[in-house]
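Model the whole thing, not chain by chain.
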Amino acid sequence: MAQPIDFYFDFTSPYGYLASTRIEEVASRHGRSVNWHPIVLGFVFKVTGSVPLVSIPLKGEYATMDIERSARQHNIPYRLPDNFPVGTVAAARTCLWLKSADFGNDPETMASMVHALYRAYFVDNIDISDTANVIAVAAAQGIDTDTLSSALENTEVKGLLKTAVDAAVEKGIFGSPFILVDGEPFWGHDRLKDVEQWLETGGF
Amino acid sequence: MAQPIDFYFDFTSPYGYLASTRIEEVASRHGRSVNWHPIVLGFVFKVTGSVPLVSIPLKGEYATMDIERSARQHNIPYRLPDNFPVGTVAAARTCLWLKSADFGNDPETMASMVHALYRAYFVDNIDISDTANVIAVAAAQGIDTDTLSSALENTEVKGLLKTAVDAAVEKGIFGSPFILVDGEPFWGHDRLKDVEQWLETGGF
């Protein structure tokens, strides 16, 4: 089987959310699976000197409009959360912990947790910067809350996020969503058509 | 006839160049013409606090690669100019002067000048920050060089660019290319497919 598509994202990224609802369909049409890579862009922005998109004059207003328009264009449920953007350390750590067989988890459970957290934030307006809310979302996915609560305080689990962010920066990843197809990088929800063309044609 | 498509661009913008080679075909398929709006992003960036794309760590390296890849994808001749990015005041003023019937010019001549300047810079590696080179490109388009040389020193012509940039910022334009379809904004070469869909469907 061909390599999975690497999908890097931040849980507070609306374009990451939009793409997360579409990437598995794109991948499966081409016999691929998705390898989910949660990162925290705040840490990446220290390298690139960037600031959150929506805080930039003019560009932020355009982005706010464009995100809603893109959701309509692709029939994706979306609302701008009341608290936005937010810190996503707890959400990212939860997913990285789920992904790690080292902690006795089944990595297959991660994809559904990614969707559940994104949906909680961008559909149900649940503030996922609050660890208690992340744990509640996990509980609804059948994850044991005591085990997760302990894991989020575990130094090794904390280390998973630092390692993931460092590895992403090392690969040149600076935004969300950021997609690698056999190492070929595509940045942005609006590049899914290019990802499709690349998968179909083998490159351009 | 339907309103022209407004196409805002900076002559040092590679994505602006790529889109400039495709926008007229997109427009004409839908019975539209193109209204060319040269701006100078350096002035706009003072409002948005932005910096040139290619100077941003990681993002700049991605963009350099992505521009070349996008040119290949759409079979557009392209090379990164030796001097890049450059100031585009003389190029923009030349086009705004050509566009202005106030100076006795035929606005129709502007489109071919836009293409000639972009081609000079991104195909023939001619440094269009040098006014003499802009005048040479104009001469090859049949424009009288003495008249143009005088025009570029004319206070009213200089005022055209300031007015154009202010008007662009007023409309929320912060990048290149930036396209308005009946006022609906689309930022980026990678949004031409969305422009097409908007023109076909009347909105989403």
